[in-house]
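Deviations from the work plan: none for this task. Representative record:
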Amino acid sequence: MRISELAERTDVPVHTLKFYLRERLLPPGLPTSRTSADYGEEHVERVRLVRALVEHGGVSLAAVRRIVGALEAPPPSRHELLGTAHSTLAGDEAGTHASPEVLALLAELGWCTWEDGPFVAELGRALEAARAAGVPLPPESLRRYAEAMRAVAEADVDLALRATSAAEAMHTVVVGTVMIDPVLVALRRVAQEAASAARA
Amino acid sequence: MRISELAERTDVPVHTLKFYLRERLLPPGLPTSRTSADYGEEHVERVRLVRALVEHGGVSLAAVRRIVGALEAPPPSRHELLGTAHSTLAGDEAGTHASPEVLALLAELGWCTWEDGPFVAELGRALEAARAAGVPLPPESLRRYAEAMRAVAEADVDLALRATSAAEAMHTVVVGTVMIDPVLVALRRVAQEAASAARA
């Protein structure tokens, strides 16, 4: 299909598609003349993915480029899949030594994790920011939040295991981690209404 | 204290504090001369709150203004507290009729919620965006995510009930909803590592 048809199919304007091409978020089409190219179904899918990541996943262009790069690379072995996915998502975000609060939580929960990893550090920063905003989390609340997110993570892993190929599993872990965050955020607020109504 | 001392205490530069004052995110200090004013502990707290909301909560300036406005208003009755908090957080985001998928989920879960509310609509949009990105959620996964977020919401409500005043409860609901999202996002990724390691 021509770029104008790709724009129509995806509801993304031609100038945005040209921007995606320049930024290498979209692979080039098959040239049909000096100024036009032919695009296929894989381009439709890619445009929908990029748009969803940028508009709903709140992902930066640099992160989108890393994500599509990881999806184009040969999938890692199942054993390395999550590590590769997480490196893709964390980018250059630095890990640091975990705070005593976070180490105590991980020990209490018995979670076997990469203690110097970027998400353990991010957890410490998020807790510190909540405290600075006047919402310190008592250990009991933090433990309950962690147990709920463990149930989310179990559902995440099961969703990835439904994949019929390693490439599909990689897609589910990388894209699912980013795109399910807003689903969880919305569910939390709807659940607050339900929980509050149930106690009224 | 002078504005320079406020800057030192909060580690926020004077020009940013002046910006907060102009944008009415920070109430004016008590004038001590034509060009200077005196600031108190409540200003230290407010600056830390605004900074945390903007830098870690990913909240827009318009949303920060709504949030500090809600915290300055007399707290609503306990019965109306969550509704007021959610209106503050949703802003002008429109609710729409819920999608059949979302209505089926709410019915299955037996959640009593405001079906035309902004967060039910947001949930539908987030599910649609995940599908467009190539991550359709099977009903079984969605139900598991919803049940986990119900546990989060129960912890949220219990945290708000620890508050010793209506004003503090309002602060916990409004600010806690925004500032605990990044804690949950980080916990989810750390829990994925733990869940994946446990199954290896």
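Chain A has one domain: 56-199.
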